[in-house]
Amino acid sequence: MTTSVTVLGAGDAFASKGRYQAGYVISAAGHHILMDAGPTLLSSMKRLGLSTADLDLVLISHLHGDHFSGLPFLILEYMYETPRSRPLILAGPPLLEERTWTLFGAMFPETDRTEIARQLRFVVLEPGGPRQIATSVQVQSIRTPHMVQHLSLGFRIDVGGKTIAFSGDTGWTEDLIALSAGADLFLCECTYYDQPSLDFHISYTQFSTQRPRFSARRLVLTHIGREVLERESQIADEMANDGSVIEI
Questions:
Q1: Where do the domains of the chain lie, and which CATH numbers do they carry?
Q2: Whose CA is closest to 169, among 124, 128, 199?
Q3: How confident is the model at residue 195 (pLDDT cuts 50, 70, 90)?
Q4: Helix, strand or coil, per DSSP, at residue 195
Q5: What is the DSSP letter of 192?
Q6: In what order do the strands lie in the sheet containing 31-37?
């Protein structure tokens, strides 16, 4: 059975060059896993003909707005447009549940969430694993050097006989080598082209020095910022694009 990753958004927090923000749908062995949920989530899914009803699991790497602020829109969709027929697991760093409902209340005040809340199961992920999050889905997490006071995560997901590694947002860390080792696909962030002083995002020049050490069968750069897009002709590696489907 084919495993695929549909790129909902490959852009950075600034939606550089009009790109949608972070989101990926992994389809494997009858599972549909949403990985990160930027604010352009619903627009991208509907444009691509993907149904929110099919989602079995949501993984959130960290609590920056371009990675999780699409969740209130997803919840609203389930309340009014596409009611869920089964529970949905939302897994991510500590405070995901609290921050999601705080954001939902700010965006849609006086909206009764009682019924939908019963169908949402929030799971806290900590570095370590692998851990079985849903039936036949194992997730290993690492802490990435992106946020200081709060936890930001990278993922290694095993589903349908395939392994997908995802850096999340991160500065360079040696843990990325092990996280992606032998994976069928490694989605690695590449926000800047040449910013060596930053320790919370990876630049392409920095990535290039480490490129020979990665052993993933396929490596695709994502979370693309303006500097990288302006130098696209100088990028030797594959870059994700909004709406692209990566078959693995």
A1: 4-247 (3.60.15.10)
A2: 199
A3: confident
A4: coil
A5: B
A6: 120-124, 88-92, 57-59, 31-37, 23-28, 4-9, 245-247
Looking at residue 212, what DSSP letter applies? G
Q: Which two tokens stand for residue 119?
A: 């169908």
- The pair of three-digit structure tokens given for residue 81, joined into one six-digit string: 């447009």
Length of the chain: 248
Alpha-carbon distance of 87 to 191, in angstroms, equals: 34
Q: Residue 126: helix, strand or coil by DSSP?
A: coil
Dig out the tokens for 8 from the structure: 């909902």
pLDDT classification of 80: cutoffs 50, 70, 90: very high
Q: How many CB atoms lie within 10 A of CB 211?
A: 12
For every residue of 59-120, DSSP letters joined together read E----SHHHHTTHHHHHHHHHHTS--SS-EEEEESTTHHHHHHHHHHHHSTT---HHHHHHE
Distance CA 58, CA 122 (A): 9
* Interatomic CA distance for residues 26 and 9, integer angstroms: 13
Q: What are the tokens at 69?
A: 């602020």
Model confidence over 108-125: pLDDT tens digits?
999 999 999 999 999 999
Encoded tokens for 47:
């444009």
Sign of CA pseudo-dihedral 199, 204, 208, 213: positive
Q: Is the pTM of this model over 0.90?
A: yes
Q: What is the dihedral of CA 145, 141, 61, 35, to 10 degrees?
A: 140
